[in-house]
Specification:
By secondary structure, the protein is an alpha/beta fold. Helix content is about 35%, strand content about 35%. A four-stranded mixed beta sheet has the order 2-5-6-7. A three-stranded mixed beta sheet has the order 1-4-3. The longest helix is centred in the C-terminal third of the chain and has 24 residues.
Length: about 190
């Protein structure tokens, strides 16, 4: 992915330098997600709080160890907040964001994992989303995405590959949310 390419150069040097710490790139709007949002008839939304759930609280919300790399979120050092910002960026790009909207989308990050295995790489991301209006809950659902890819023994190959696959899950989870039939029904413009 484009947003992590500068990271690739740094990671190539890891074999010589040892461990590194790197924030993910800032969230970018996904063309597919923006097109789906524009085609929907959902009302403008406000993105409220996104927090880590009990299984993700602490270090799993703050950093992700991928072999010799420690990946972190550039959004207040929180992967939960990174998810919220990813959704917000897509809503803004689609013209479906309103900071004063009565519809407020909130989330709890429930699963967050990445592994750059030698044989197989895996990554998982999950969140419980809630859409509220005037204090009442219109939508509440757990959504999960995961990815699996061929692993690599060489860290300079495996680390950026795992970082790219993991980062892409934020776009995948956002797309899964905005195409979910229950979410679309609850957020429908009236």
């Amino acid at each position: 992915m484009i947003r992590l390419r500068p990271l690739a150069a740094l990671l190539l040097a890891l074999g010589v330098c040892g461990c590194a710490s790197q924030p993910m790139g800032m969230p970018q709007a996904s063309m597919t997600t923006v097109e789906k949002l524009r085609a929907s008839d959902i009302a403008p939304l406000h993105v409220g709080t996104f927090v880590p759930g009990p299984a993700v609280a602490g270090s799993k919300d703050k950093s992700m160890g991928i072999r010799a790399l420690t990946l972190s979120s550039p959004i207040e050092g929180s992967f939960a907040k990174y998810l919220g910002k990813t959704i917000e960026v897509n809503l803004k790009a689609a013209g479906k964001f309103d900071a004063n909207a009565p519809l407020i989308l909130q989330g709890v990050l429930t699963d967050n994992d990445d592994s750059a295995g030698i044989d197989v790489g895996t990554a998982k991301l999950g969140a419980k989303f809630t859409l509220v209006k005037n204090g009442g809950t219109l939508f509440e659902k757990q959504l999960n995405v995961d990815d699996k890819w061929e692993g690599a023994f060489i860290g300079a190959v495996a680390i950026p590959d795992a970082a790219n696959h993991y980062s892409a899950l934020y776009d995948s989870l956002t797309l899964k949310l905005v195409t979910d039939a229950d979410f679309l029904a609850a957020a429908k413009a009236k």
